[in-house]
Specification:
single chain, 304 residues, alpha/beta, 2 domains, 4-stranded mixed β-sheet, 11 helices, 4 strands
Amino acid sequence: MNKIRTFWEDTAKVWLHEMRDMFKDEGALLFVILLPLSYPLLYSWIYNNEVVREVPVAIVDNSHSQTSREFVRHVDASSDVRVAAICNNLEEASRLVGQQEVYGIILLPEDFDRRLGRMEQAHVSVYCNMGLMLTYKAIFQTCTAVAADMNAHIQIALSGNYTNRDDQITASPINVADVPIFNNTGGYGNFILPGVLVLIIQQVMLLGIGITYGTSYEKRRFGRLTDMYERRFGLARIMVGRTMGFLVLFLLIATWVLLAVPRLFHFVQLLHAYDFALFVLPYLLACIFFSITFSFFVRQRENV
């Protein structure tokens, strides 16, 4: 019984020593406390809108036909895209993209209406700024929806049907009901943030533990402390103490990052307390052991 009590007392001393060293280091404090508090808020704020509206695009209409103007009107009437400029050629539209006045280009070729009149397939080219996924999604999906709607009207006009029901079957022979599961908003916030928040925990853990041990190496006291610890406490107590100290600290951080932040920004969340513990505890332990192992290769703070 006394051996068990001594084991946990020594473990607690190692725990307190590790926490004291970490909280004395301004750099480690920045990565361990301030970064996990602010980093998830920044990411969540960026993607909080889920979707973007009225994304400006440039139109290059080489067809100058009634059908091409109808396509442009439908695009401009959508809630996601706004026609901001009508350009004479692709080079002029590309300059607007480079100046960030528009985020995409819709090119209607010269034979757009002529191919439709000859019962051939016409093409519309859509150029998007792939640096911004939200704007790309808005432009591409809008053009796809407008094309599908115009396709349906063309099919109905050529079918020679007599009733509205016949027109519906001609335009949509197979009716597909789209029911989003888990990501009911269809936005990038609910899609990206669950994975990003988990990676943030690993990142701050690796940086915080690494910079703490890197500082110890720089001060040329890490080796002596380790030898002293091994003689006084033993390797088992050292590893358990360090692991428990980091586990308690990062368990609080994980609670903030994985539970509080999604609720603040109203992201879809299906995580319960039991599932949270079942996932987070082994994940944090794996990250802690990896970070401690990684720290032995860190000889300077900047190496992290």
